[in-house]
């Protein structure tokens, strides 16, 4: 399978953060973004509210999944130059190990950015990027410029 990497267009990190601040669940999670060069890293600061299994303790799987989905959306948003917010078609998540009660990081790679569909891979890790706790593969719908230009009847 050949990979096509979308060339990111510079978007103000403040714009991206403000966009996710308006999403209630993202705000509850406290997800932050860091952009170094063309690599966007999402950071999920640990807080006790994120624990799903207090016996281990381990992060809730939905929290890890949400972090990766938000990371994918943010990476596609950047790859498009901040034009439009993608919609989830489907995602598949592999939970590889329990997330510990520490900060968690995620990075996305856009494998294909078409006119209507984007394919993305995301990995989440805690201590070592080479040792992920979860991986996501997703397909996202991109609104076409034509659809945005058409008036709603």
Radius of gyration (Å):
16 Å
Strand content: 25-35%
Number of strand elements: 8
Low-confidence stretches: 1-8
Strand order of the largest sheet: 1-2-6-7-8-5
Number of helices: 4
Average pLDDT value? 87
Helix % is 25-40%
Major sheet: 6 strands, antiparallel
Sequence of secondary-structure elements: HHEEEEHEEEEH
Spatial gap, N to C terminus: 41 Å
Gross morphology is globular
Derived from helix and strand composition plus strand pairing, the structural class reads: alpha+beta
Task: Describe the structure in brief.
The protein is an alpha+beta fold and 153 residues long. The protein is 25% helix and 34% strand. The chain has 4 helices and 8 strands, in the order ααββββαββββα.
Describe the structure.
It contains four helices and eight strands; from the N terminus they run ααββββαββββα. By secondary structure, the protein is an alpha+beta fold. A six-stranded antiparallel β-sheet has the order 1-2-6-7-8-5, covered by helices on one side. A two-stranded antiparallel ribbon has the order 3-4. The longest helix is centred in the middle third of the chain and has 19 residues, at 61-79. The radius of gyration is 16 Å and the shape is globular. The model is unreliable at 1-8 (pLDDT under 50).
